[in-house]
Amino acid sequence: MSTGPYQPQTISGSQLKQIVTARVLAGVQTPAQYLGGEHNMVRKDHDRVLGKLCLAFPDLYTIGMSHHGLQVLYGLMNSREDWVCERSFAPAVDMEQRMRALRLPWYGLESFTPLCRYDVLGFSLQYEICSVNVLTMLDLGGIPLRADDRTLADPLVVAGGPCAQNPEPLAPFIDLFITGDGEPSLPVICDRWLEIRQRARRETGWLEGEAGRRQREAALLELARSVNYAYVPRFYEPEYRDGRFVALNRTHPDAPESIYPCVIDDLESIPLPTRPLVPLVECVHDRIAIEIMRGCPWQCRFCQSTVIKRPLRIRSVDTIIRAAEESYRATGFNEISILSLSTSDYPHFEELVTRLKQVFGPRGVNISVPSLRVNEQLRTLAELVGNDRRSSLTLAPEVARDDMRQQIRKKIKNEDLYEGCRTAFRNNFRSVKLYFMCGLPGERPVDLDGIVEMAETISRIGKEETGRWARVTASVSNFVPKPHTPYQWNAMQRREYFHWAHQYLRSRKRLGSVSIKCHPVETSLLEGVISRGDRRVADAIELAWRRGARLDSWREHFNAQRWWQALADAGIDIECALHRPWGLEERLPWDHLHIKYGRDYLAKEQRRALVQLDAMATVTK
Length: 621
What we know:
By secondary structure, the chain is of the alpha/beta class. Helices cover 38% and strands 14% of the residues.
């Protein structure tokens, strides 16, 4: 496979669409994902708008079209008369090969405009393993991979999302990272970039070569110093000592010393998308999704989202009901999913679900609650939510023993979980999926025993209530200490431990109605390297991509050895990157990005966790 430098032919959107439909799509799988034309799609005349934005999701259509954030920003930007917002998703390998064979550029679905012709290209970084897909889309779209090689003629390449909380591994490829909420920040960045870019074009024209690169750098500096939530990596230089990251130094005095998140104070004021796009092919989630609350009232030490999404903000029940009705009329979906990090903690939850069922029950529309908190409310939740069409309950206890829950600050009780499952089985639920983690700090064999015991207890409760063993799946992920959490200083467990833990879990299972599914170890280790890495990891990402890494979040494409070789060739010390803890006094690669409560809060929680670990170890002895 050719990986660049790639020089696609210069071609208009209409010409590109004609060639793709006539000569490309017949030879690829699921061609409808590359066509555009979905119900509720927005198409505008590019000559009648001031700015052109393309939202780039670095994964396949079936994943990206299920992402609520993309629908939110798509509706928000297209509500403006002066901007057009279009979409692009990562191509499957067969599609990329055919595009390269014909020297065709990657494009936005609405107009088949090549990516290089937008003013702004915005990536949503949801999963570290998708890093190589960012490079595929840039290269295939005719945009220089490295930010330093671009001029003002190239789009502004922006990135946000959870993985932007440590931007360093992708820093050489991204012009600007946005931290915090995207609804208020993205329009500001787009407007200011357009203003700066057009002014330069009027005054001097867009320069080429080295002069063009300097012109772009000046434009980026003006943008960076105008807002405090924009991180432009080219104005910061990492410093290393003895192979270890020690500092990130500004290279220009006008670049902000620290980056702060853009935060929506009033979530109610942010409109919900009420004409969401309806996919052309089956996606992971084919349903109406409505965000009812942003943030989480809990403070679990392992969870990055609960830290970076603070403070807690809610929407009113009336706003949610109106949005649900409008979305239903605009789509015809038969399921509405109410979203939040912890949906059942929404303060008006019972009223909301009751009213949704009153409005949509007669229409045969199901109400789903994908993120349930295990608390006393769960005892009655299944009765409130359940119906004849829903057969599975999904819960995330994370761990199974009380002392480990105290360690991770997951305040739940087994009796609430068991009683909630009992109620669910009485209300036509037939199976339960449980999410756990292994490899947490201080984990013991008894904690793994508890996972199996909990799953088998729930299956027995199902038999008591229905006369049949309930199907229970325990999905076990491998813990990665993420940036901006109290565990960010911890080391990650080694592959040998994870393999042992997975085998141990499977060996303890006795009931055929219970399944133990463990996340692939090599994928988790790579996630750890990228999520915790510094800027040197970027060279390994590019090496792996040039050697054929594509869509590695899909198991059939993932090649672990290719990654470990690329990391070794890039000089990345895996032992240091993954398995050596950081000291509380050490600088971390992401420390220049601030969060709501700050590093001091995280350090305090880390110290408390260490005290609790000592207590657990003493009891175990």
